[in-house]
Write a sequence for this structure.
């Protein structure tokens, strides 16, 4: 469907090849299970602090934010090697928040407006389901996505009502890290 008078054209969903890497990066608030093989006293489940750091027995204040779980595990192996021979560490993310700049924010007339951790292949419909749908006062077809494209803020029209009520899958566009979905209130 075409956009409403003067509204920017709805962007097509990007092909899978142009989506961001599926490699997860640790963010503040994530919960990590750090498993040290054959060393149960060093195996812990810890949150990533707001400053982006994590501490385990013998190794304090390691920066975790922005690293992959595998990269963090290798760093712990290197630091633990001072205390134990050939440590083998696995980092498992059990509670996902993700890096703050990558979170998708849904505001306005969503049933439960909030930030969601971005995940690969996330679409507008995924986000709407996660926030419990639209309120009865939502102007779904007047919704917009605000996206930072190469340092420039760009706005796209999204027809949420058509997607939810009519099943118009052309309105189910791919989201990108850092997108803001704004759902306005309809005028009575």
């Amino acid at each position: 469907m075409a956009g409403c008078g003067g509204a920017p054209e709805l962007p097509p969903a990007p092909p899978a090849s142009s989506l961001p890497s599926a490699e997860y990066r640790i963010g503040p608030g994530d919960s990590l299970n750090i498993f040290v093989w054959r060393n149960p006293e060093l195996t812990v489940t810890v949150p990533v602090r707001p400053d982006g750091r994590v501490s385990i027995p013998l190794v304090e204040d390691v920066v975790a934010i922005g690293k992959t779980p595998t990269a963090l595990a290798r760093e712990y192996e290197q630091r633990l090697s001072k205390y134990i021979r050939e440590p083998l560490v696995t980092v498992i993310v059990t509670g996902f928040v993700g890096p703050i700049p990558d979170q998708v924010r849904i505001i306005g007339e969503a049933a439960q407006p909030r930030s969601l951790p971005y995940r690969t292949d996330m679409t507008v419909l995924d986000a709407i389901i996660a926030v419990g749908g639209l309120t009865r006062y939502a102007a779904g077809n007047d919704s917009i996505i605000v996206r930072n494209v190469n340092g420039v803020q760009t706005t796209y029209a999204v027809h949420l009502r058509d997607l939810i009520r009519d099943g118009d899958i052309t309105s189910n566009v791919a989201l990108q890290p850092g997108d803001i979905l704004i759902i306005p209130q309809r005028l009575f």
